[in-house]
C-alpha cells in the first residue's frame, strides 16, 4: 500500500525578525497518523515555526500546504478551524469556567429556544473526558483540576474541533509520570485515528517512546530529518547542539582563561537535594570560593530552576541551601541576598534592569539599604560605588546618569552585574550571562567572570553556549529532566563528555562520575 | 489550606457537590463555603439588616417606605445590571453616571415630540456612546478606565449644553405615557420596578444561558485563551459597553419620567455606586466571575443602609457618607478575603 498522502507540507519556510533569521528555508512534511518530533535548542526556530503554522506570524517566504491546498492563516482561530490545533505548554483555558464549558466554548449544544443545553453539554463532556482518563465533575471550575487533567481537557478540546494536525508544545513539562503515560496513550489513539501529531519536547525518553519521525532545527535551519529510530541519542544531541563528536579544540574560542585556582577549602555554597514539584528532583550542587561551576543540560532540564531555587526565587519543597556555613531558610530572596547570593537572571528585560532609570540608579538599587543610614542615602557613597564599578566592569555609558534602556545589551548586562557585585556577594549565579549580546561584549563579560572567580567568588554558570560552558567552568554538573545525571571534572570537562552525559549513554569510565539520585 | 493540588488524582467528585451546574463552586469544603458566602453573603446581610431595621424603626417596614426604596433602587439596579456585564469581562464603565443624567435630560427634552422619541432618543445617544466606548476599548486597546472617564466628561458636557449649563429644566407632561411609565404602579408596585425585574431576568438568562454570556465570562476569565478558543473577544467587549450605555440611558429616562423632569444634577457619582453594588454582589473586579442576582442584592443593600441611616435621623448627613463608605470598605474587604481563600485572585 502506498503511504498516505501528506496532510501537511511545509516548503522553504523563511521568517526574519529584525537582526535574526528565525527560519531559513525550513521543510517539514507530515503524513496522517505520523507522530513527528520537532526539536532544537533555544532560538533554533521551533516556536517561530509553530507560530507560522498556527497563524500567529506570516512567513516571509515559503509555502504551507494543508490537506492539498495552499494555506495562509491570519489568526490562530483560522488555523484551528481549518484543522490545526495547538496545545501550549501553559494550559490555555479559562480557569474560572467549568470544565464542560471550557470544553465546549464556542460550540455549545443549544436547545430549540437557542439557549445553552447544559444537561447535554455536561453529559457529553463527561463522556468525552472519560476516554482521556479524566473522571471529574465537569461542572467544577477548571482550576480545581490538576495541571495534568487540565492539559487533558485542552487536548480533548483540540481534538474535538476536528483537528487533522495537533501540535503539542512541551505538553509534559508540568505532568506527573502517570499523566505522561495517559498522554502517550491518547497520542497513540490519535495516531491510529489518522491524526498527525507534532511533538515538541526536550525529554529524550519521551521522544523515543512516542515519536516515529524527527526534524531537528538549529539556527533556523533544518539540520536533520528522518526516522527517529535511526538516530542514536548521542547523534540526536550532537545534531541539536551542532557539535561533531570527537571534535577537539586546541585553542578555546572564548575569552576564558580556563582553570582557576579554586581554593581547596570548604565550599562557599552547598545546595543539597533541591526539590521543586515537576521541576527539580533532588539537585545538589556545591561551589568552592574561586571556582566556576557550570550547569549543563538541555533546555528545560532544570538549570534556571536550580539557580532560582538557590537564590530563593523558587520555593523548594525539600532540600537545603548552605552559604558559608549558614543554612538559608528556603523561599526567601532577601534572605539569600543577605547571605551573599546574587542571581543574574536569564531574562534581563523582565527580571533585571529598570530601563527608565539611570545607570547609577540601576547599580545602586539593590545596595541602597547598605548605602544608607537611618533611611537616608549617602550620595557620596553611592557615587563612589557606582564609579568604581563603571570603571572596573568597563561599562560604556555617556555618564552615570544615562538611562540604562539606551545602552547596548552587553552594557546592560554589565550594569546588572555591577548591581549584584555592589552587594558584595559570596556566590554569583549567572544565568545565560552572554545571551543576546554582541561578540565583543560577550568576550568582556567572560573575562569579567574569570576575574571575579580569581577574586574568590564562587560562580555558578549557566549557558546554552557549549563552548562558553566548557571553557568557562572548572567543573560541570549535568542536569537532565530536573535531576543531576553526571558531573564532569578536570580533563573530562569537554563538549564530548558533556553531550554523552546529556544523551545518557556515557561509558562507565572515569569520564563521568555518576551521581546517584534515584537511590 | 487545601487547594487544587488535592485534585491531581482525577477521581470523580460528582457525588459530593449538589451545586447548580452554572455556579462555579470550589473543590474543598472550605472553598465551597467561601464560594457560598461570597455569592450569597450580601443577601444574608441584606436580610439581617432589614429585619433589625424593621424592629428598630417603626417607619422602616411601612409600605410607603418599602415602595419608595424599591422604586429608587430600580434606577440604580438597571445601571448596575449593565455594569455587571462590563465588570465580568474585566472592564469598568465610569460613564454610566453621566449617561444616566444625559438620558434623563434627553428623555424630558424629547417628550414634547411624543413618548417614542422620549425613549428612543436617550437610548440611541447613550447606546452610541457605549458603542464608542466599546470600540475604543476593544479595537484600539485603550484602558477602559480612561476611555469611559473621557466618555463621562463628554456626556456631562453634552448634557450641560442641552440645558444651558443646567439653567433649563425640561418637564415631562403629566398624564403622558412616559409619565405613566415612570410614576404609575401595577399591582401596587411601581412600573420602573417591574421593568427592572424583567431586565434582570432577561440579563440572567443572557449571561447564563447564551453563547454571548459564555463569551462574557471567557473574556474576563482569560482574554488570550478566550481568543485562542475562538471567542469573539472584541465583539463581546463592544457589546457589553453598548449594553451598559443603553441601560444607563434607559435608567436615566425612567428616572426622569418618575420625577416628571430631566434633573441635571442627578447621576453624579452614580457610576461608583453601581460599581460598589456589583462588587458587593460578589462579582470579581478582576473579571471572569459574577452574578446578575448579586448585583441586585448589592443595590438593595446600599439603598437599605442609606435608608436606615436616614431613619436614625440624629446622624449628621456628612457622617452618613462616612458610614456608607466604611460599610462598603468592610464588604469589599470581606469579598477580597473570600476571593483569596478561593484562590481566585
From TrEMBL, chain A:
PANTHER family: CARBOHYDRATE TRANSPORT ATP-BINDING PROTEIN MG119-RELATED, GALACTOFURANOSE TRANSPORTER ATP-BINDING PROTEIN YTFR
Species annotation: Streptomyces griseoaurantiacus
GO molecular function: ATP binding
SUPFAM superfamilies in the record: P-loop containing nucleoside triphosphate hydrolases
Keyword Nucleotide-binding assigned: yes
Designated name of the protein: Sugar ABC transporter ATP-binding protein
UniProt keywords, alphabetically: ATP-binding, Nucleotide-binding, Repeat, Transport
Lineage: Bacteria, Bacillati, Actinomycetota, Actinomycetes, Kitasatosporales
Occurrences of domain ABC transporter (ranges): 8-244, 248-506
Top-level taxon: Bacteria
Automatic annotation (TrEMBL), chain B:
Membrane topology: Multi-pass membrane protein
Region of interest called Disordered, as start-end residue ranges on this chain: 1-25
Subcellular localization(s) per the UniProt record: Cell membrane
Keyword Metal-binding: no
GO MF terms, alphabetically ordered: transmembrane transporter activity
Biased composition (Low complexity): 1-19
Key words of the record: Cell membrane, Membrane, Transmembrane, Transmembrane helix
GO cellular component: plasma membrane
Entry's transmembrane regions: 41-61, 73-96, 116-138, 145-163, 183-207, 238-258, 278-302, 322-339
Annotated InterPro entries: ABC_transp_permease
Signal peptide start and end residues: none
Protein name: Putative sugar uptake ABC transporter permease protein
Organism: Streptomyces griseoaurantiacus M045
Lineage per the UniProt record: Bacteria, Bacillati, Actinomycetota, Actinomycetes, Kitasatosporales
Amino acid at each position: 500500500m502506498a503511504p498516505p498522502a501528506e496532510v501537511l507540507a511545509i516548503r522553504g519556510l523563511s521568517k526574519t525578525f529584525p537582526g535574526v533569521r528565525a527560519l531559513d528555508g525550513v521543510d517539514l512534511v507530515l503524513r496522517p497518523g505520523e507522530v513527528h518530533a520537532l526539536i532544537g535548542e533555544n532560538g533554533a526556530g521551533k516556536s517561530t515555526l509553530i507560530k507560522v503554522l498556527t497563524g500567529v506570524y506570516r512567513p516571509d517566504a515559503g509555502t504551507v500546504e494543508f490537506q492539498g491546498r495552499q494555506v495562509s492563516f491570519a489568526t490562530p482561530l483560522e488555523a484551528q478551524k481549518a484543522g490545526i490545533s495547538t496545545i501550549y505548554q501553559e494550559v490555555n483555558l479559562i480557569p474560572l469556567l467549568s470544565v464542560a464549558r471550557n470544553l465546549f466554548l464556542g460550540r455549545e449544544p443549544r436547545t430549540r429556544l437557542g439557549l445553552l443545553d447544559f444537561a447535554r453539554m455536561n453529559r457529553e463532556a463527561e463522556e468525552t473526558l472519560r476516554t482521556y482518563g479524566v473522571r471529574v465533575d465537569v461542572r467544577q471550575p477548571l482550576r480545581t483540576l490538576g495541571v495534568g487533567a487540565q492539559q487533558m481537557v485542552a487536548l480533548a478540546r483540540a481534538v474535538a474541533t476536528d483537528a487533522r494536525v495537533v501540535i503539542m508544545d512541551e505538553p509534559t513539562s508540568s505532568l506527573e509520570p502517570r499523566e505522561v503515560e495517559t498522554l502517550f496513550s491518547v497520542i497513540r489513539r490519535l495516531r491510529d485515528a489518522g491524526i498527525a501529531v507534532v511533538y515538541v519536547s526536550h525529554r529524550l525518553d519521551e521522544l523515543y517512546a512516542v515519536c516515529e519521525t524527527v526534524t531537528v532545527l538549529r539556527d533556523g535551519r533544518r539540520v536533520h530529518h528522518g526516522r527517529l529510530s535511526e538516530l542514536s541519542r548521542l547523534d540526536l544531541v550532537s545534531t541539536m547542539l551542532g557539535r561533531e563528536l570527537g571534535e577537539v579544540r586546541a585553542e578555546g574560542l572564548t575569552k576564558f582563561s580556563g582553570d582557576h585556582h579554586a581554593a581547596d577549602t570548604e565550599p562557599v555554597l552547598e545546595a543539597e537535594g533541591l526539590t521543586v514539584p515537576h521541576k527539580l528532583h533532588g539537585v545538589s550542587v556545591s561551589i568552592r570560593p574561586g571556582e566556576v561551576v557550570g550547569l549543563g543540560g538541555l533546555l528545560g532540564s532544570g538549570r534556571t530552576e536550580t539557580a532560582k531555587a538557590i537564590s530563593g526565587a523558587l520555593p523548594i519543597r525539600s532540600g537545603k541551601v548552605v552559604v558559608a556555613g549558614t543554612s538559608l531558610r528556603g523561599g526567601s530572596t532577601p534572605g539569600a541576598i543577605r547571605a551573599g547570593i546574587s542571581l543574574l537572571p536569564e531574562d534581563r528585560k523582565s527580571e533585571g534592569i529598570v530601563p527608565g532609570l539611570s545607570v547609577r540608579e540601576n547599580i545602586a538599587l539593590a545596595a541602597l539599604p547598605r548605602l544608607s543610614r537611618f533611611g537616608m542615602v549617602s550620595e557620596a557613597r553611592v557615587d563612589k560605588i557606582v564609579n568604581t564599578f563603571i570603571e572596573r566592569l568597563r561599562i560604556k555609558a555617556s555618564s552615570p546618569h544615562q538611562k540604562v534602556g539606551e545602552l547596548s545589551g552587553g552594557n546592560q548586562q554589565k550594569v546588572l552585574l555591577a548591581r549584584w557585585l555592589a552587594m558584595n556577594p559570596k556566590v554569583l549565579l549567572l544565568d545565560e550571562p552572554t545571551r543576546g549580546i554582541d561578540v565583543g561584549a560577550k568576550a568582556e563579560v567572560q573575562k569579567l567572570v574569570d576575574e571575579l572567580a580569581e577574586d574568590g567568588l564562587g560562580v555558578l554558570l549557566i549557558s546554552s553556549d557549549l563552548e562558553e560552558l566548557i571553557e568557562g567552568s572548572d567543573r560541570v554538573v549535568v542536569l537532565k529532566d530536573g535531576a543531576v545525571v553526571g558531573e564532569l571534572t578536570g580533563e573530562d570537562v569537554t563538549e564530548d563528555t558533556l553531550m554523552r552525559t546529556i544523551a545518557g549513554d556515557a561509558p562507565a569510565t572515569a569520564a563521568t562520575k555518576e551521581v546517584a539520585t534515584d537511590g | 489550606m487545601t487547594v487544587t493540588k488535592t485534585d491531581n488524582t482525577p477521581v470523580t467528585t460528582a457525588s459530593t457537590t449538589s451545586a447548580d451546574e452554572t455556579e462555579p463552586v470550589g473543590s474543598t469544603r472550605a472553598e465551597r463555603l467561601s464560594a457560598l458566602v461570597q455569592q450569597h453573603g450580601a443577601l444574608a446581610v441584606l436580610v439581617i439588616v432589614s429585619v433589625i431595621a424593621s424592629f428598630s424603626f417603626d417607619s422602616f417596614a411601612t409600605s410607603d417606605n418599602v415602595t419608595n426604596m424599591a422604586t429608587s433602587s430600580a434606577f440604580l439596579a438597571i445601571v448596575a445590571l449593565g455594569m455587571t456585564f462590563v465588570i465580568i469581562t474585566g472592564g469598568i464603565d465610569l460613564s454610566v453616571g453621566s449617561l444616566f443624567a444625559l438620558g434623563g435630560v434627553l428623555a424630558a427634552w424629547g417628550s414634547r415630540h411624543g413618548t417614542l422619541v422620549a425613549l428612543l432618543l436617550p437610548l440611541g445617544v447613550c447606546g452610541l456612546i457605549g458603542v464608542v466606548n466599546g470600540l475604543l476599548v476593544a479595537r484600539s486597546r485603550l484602558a477602559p478606565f480612561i476611555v469611559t472617564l473621557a466618555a463621562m466628561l463628554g456626556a456631562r458636557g453634552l448634557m450641560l449644553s442641552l440645558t444651558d449649563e443646567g439653567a433649563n429644566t425640561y418637564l415631562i407632561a403629566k398624564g403622558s405615557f412616559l409619565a405613566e411609565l415612570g410614576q404609575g404602579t401595577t399591582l401596587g408596585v411601581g412600573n420602573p420596578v417591574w421593568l427592572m425585574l424583567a431586565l434582570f431576568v432577561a440579563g440572567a438568562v443572557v449571561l447564563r444561558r447564551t453563547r454571548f454570556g459564555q463569551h462574557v465570562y471567557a473574556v474576563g476569565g482569560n482574554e488570550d485563551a478566550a481568543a485562542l478558543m475562538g471567542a469573539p473577544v472584541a465583539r463581546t467587549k463592544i457589546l457589553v459597553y453598548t449594553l451598559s450605555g443603553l441601560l444607563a440611558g434607559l435608567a436615566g429616562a425612567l428616572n426622569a419620567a418618575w420625577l416628571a423632569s430631566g434633573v441635571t444634577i442627578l447621576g453624579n457619582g452614580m457610576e461608583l455606586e453601581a460599581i460598589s453594588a456589583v462588587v458587593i454582589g460578589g462579582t470579581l473586579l478582576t473579571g471572569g466571575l459574577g452574578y446578575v442576582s448579586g448585583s441586585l442584592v448589592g443595590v438593595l443593600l446600599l439603598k437599605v443602609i442609606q435608608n436606615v441611616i436616614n431613619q436614625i435621623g440624629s446622624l449628621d448627613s456628612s457622617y452618613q457618607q462616612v458610614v456608607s463608605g466604611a460599610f462598603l470598605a468592610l464588604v469589599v474587604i470581606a469579598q477580597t478575603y473570600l476571593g483569596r481563600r478561593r484562590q481566585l485572585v
